[in-house]
Amino acid sequence: MERGPTGSGRCRARRPYRTHRDWSPVKRLRWPSWMPIDPYIVLLLATVGLAALLPARGAGASVASGASTAAIAFLFFLYGARLSTREAMDGLRHWRLHITVLASTFVLFPVLGLAARGLVPVLLDQPLYQGLLFLTLVPSTIQSSIAFTSIARGNVPAAICAGSFSSIIGIVLTPLLAAALLGNDGGGFSGDSFVKIVLQLLAPFLAGQLLRRWVGGFLTRHKKVLGLVDRGSILLVVYTAFSEGMAQGIWGQISLPRLGGLLVVEAVLLAVMLAVTWYGGRAAGFDRGDRIAIQFAGSKKSLASGLPMASVLFGAHASLAVLPLMLFHQMQLMVCAVLAKRRSRDPEAVALAAAEAEASGTAPVPPATPSNVSSSQAC
Length: 379
What we know:
Blueprint: E1 2-3, E2 11-12, H1 25-28, H2 39-53, H3 59-82, H4 85-90, H5 95-115, H6 126-135, H7 143-151, H8 156-181, H9 191-221, H10 223-248, H11 256-283, H12 288-298, H13 303-314, H14 318-344, H15 347-360
Antiparallel strand pairs: 1-2
Helix pairs in contact: 2-10, 3-9, 3-10, 3-13, 5-8, 5-11, 5-12, 6-14, 7-8, 7-12, 7-14, 8-12, 9-13, 10-13, 11-12, 11-14, 13-14
């Protein structure tokens, strides 16, 4: 405290000195809340553009490929170290909900993907269809499922457990489904792919789980920095995959009408999954909170898991394999943000929030907004 300029006894608070945190670019540079595009998707598209203009070639391609391999292993090590298996196991008591989400993710989605085979060659060509089918095999998200379930005032613990189960099982089940449904089409599954999956995906994931006891605290303390690292790693994987696609001349096979057809098919796919998970949950006797968790966990696909898996499974063809996933990811974020906000305004949700506030003696908490779902929660 210090005296006023007239020397009177009145005191005023001393203005605090600015620290390096006040000048942090993370705080100063914020994505406009009115813009519906996830900023991370913009970075991914910029990376694709860079690979199209300046693809890695020759020795640079070898360096990029090696760095991408290391980045994928590091990503899955982080996934394993961050994932609390104990918390996931504690959620087993709600086994009906988890089985419903897993069935939506690994049964219903692939069935719809197989049904889309009839759209070739009317709306889709074979390479894009292979990417669409791979999209249906990818595990669900964790962070965005939790975020949207919270916004809609649903069962957040159930969303956490459901997303965790899907990620754990997807490490093994997604490659197995790819082997069964994709075969060698589009550069798909082979014996070498199986070895790569074990070495690049499964082994680092298990190592992260085993070392979680010692590194978990460090990861929690440096969550923001490591979030930037794993997103940067995904950008490197995307650049390498699309560079290989450019070198193979794969992008010359895709036309704008085909991309338009892909967007239409993905919009229908998302609408069907959102409807089936919601009304199917009601028919199965789940309450509102559980149905919200089922809808948001059972209708999503993980970009963070799918991109590295596609790089391992498809090699030079990974650029076409991940394109449908990237488009679906942005679509699901935009649609679910609107849907979650509407769910939060349901009379039942408002009454529940008021009852909880009355019981705790506090003011009702207003529903969150879709802008609260940052790019760090999007994958």
